[in-house]
Amino acid sequence: MSSAAPSFSASFANTWYSDTAIAVSDCHGIDDIDDLYDVAIIGAGLAGLSAALHLAQTGARVVLIEKYNIGDAASGRNGGFCTNGWAGSEPAIEKLLGPDNAAELNALASEGLEWMRARCFSQSYSACQPVNGCLTLSLFADDPLPIAQSELGDFIKGPRYKSGSVDHEGFHFHPLNFLRCLTAECLEAGVTILQNCPVLHMAEDTPSRTLITVGPTQTSIAAKTTVITTGGTGGAYFKQLSKLLVPVQTFIAVSAPMPEILAQHIPTPYAIADTRRAGNYFRKLPDGRLLWGMGISALSAPSSAYVRRLALQDIAAHLPEMAKEMVAAKVGIDYAWSGTMGYARHFMPYVGPLGPNSFCAAGFGGHGMNTAPIAGKLIAEVISGTANRLEPFHAVPKQQTYGTLGKTAAEAYYRMMKGKDRLKEFLA
């Protein structure tokens, strides 16, 4: 096996995750591929790796094709939160799909969380450094959570936060190390994994076989079944999904080490997020740094310098006393990056068949750490014939996003929600 293929990842900003990651497993080279696979999976994020592992465990011959290095995209550069639920709220999902489908999806989300938890807290995944507990905060006096403002000082020293709640099932972890551990597990199970291998062409060779041409060597890979798990924004040969999803940028910054300052102002080990549609999410990292997530943009990918400035302004707006101490101690932002996620208009993913011998699992933007791996498992069950639990996803409507118009609408929606949240906080 070889991992020396040319890299297509130069455009990705460096992250704290990549600088603290465990070693990369040696994946395969083009010379290692077989004549025919049972399943070809395109996209080696959480959904793709999960589908590959579950299929290989049934004895299927699986090839997993990734355009970049595994973990370069959203699955390996996100906030590292794993909690229950979906990106859409429970009331919104029930209104969209009905109570029965909503109940089934809720059970699947819980199953995905437990699958992730079982691995993250196992000895073989110890590099994920999981920490139990997630704290949700409300900035709105008329939207109270169980923990009153007078009790929040045990968790955080921020004057704008009005109430909170603790989720003891949720946890936070190192997502890139998780992907590397999962990649090693897939390789051990017999999955052929190709990194830095963009798909150049896909065509049905016979009614029961698809030929996938990959670069940079123009090599054809044959498979009986294909699964698209690229997030829906992977290029010309994924137009069917690209029309249903909007690529949205979110931003993350990581401070220089400041363990004493964090201990004073954020005395909880829990990961923290607020209830706004495009709110903040942040957590303390094992080396005494603060990871701070913020913002949404559908129109541009800002520079790392801009993300650094935005993070410092955002921290000062929510934790002003901590921000002052950071300035006094000359603590700045060491890492800043953005990541692209695929969002549907209704915030639900598309999971299921695309054609007679093809499937997809895409659109997990905003809440993918538990939902993407369970979707990969469901696709594997259908392909292997062991079960079919895709029924609730059949009810998810396919809503067009209309390209640039959809991106502009998404940007306008975010700005509108941001303004409404600020006004609601001010008037409460």
Describe how the helices and strands are arranged.
Layout: H1 16-19, E1 37-42, H2 46-56, E2 62-65, E3 81-82, H3 90-97, H4 99-120, E4 131-138, E5 147-148, E6 163-172, H5 175-188, E7 192-194, E8 199-206, E9 209-214, E10 219-228, H6 239-242, E11 246-255, H7 259-265, E12 271-274, E13 281-284, E14 290-297, H8 304-318, H9 320-328, E15 333-343, E16 350-355, E17 358-362, H10 371-384, H11 391-394, H12 403-427
Helix pairs in contact: 2-5, 2-10, 3-4, 4-10, 7-9, 8-9
Q: What does this entry look like structurally?
A:
By secondary structure, the protein is of the alpha/beta class. The protein has 12 helices and 17 strands. The chain has helices at 16-19, 46-56, 90-97, 99-120, 175-188, 239-242, 259-265, 304-318, 320-328, 371-384, 391-394, 403-427; strands at 37-42, 62-65, 81-82, 131-138, 147-148, 163-172, 192-194, 199-206, 209-214, 219-228, 246-255, 271-274, 281-284, 290-297, 333-343, 350-355, 358-362. The strands form 2 sheets. Strands 3, 4, 5, 6, 11, 12, 13, 14 and 15 form a 9-stranded mixed sheet that branches. Strands 1, 2, 7, 8, 9, 10, 16 and 17 form an 8-stranded mixed sheet that branches. Helix 2 packs parallel to helix 5 (175-188), helix 2 packs parallel to helix 10 (371-384) and helix 7 (259-265) runs antiparallel to helix 9 (320-328). It starts with 15 loop residues before the first helix and ends with a helix. Mean pLDDT is 93; it is low at 3-10.
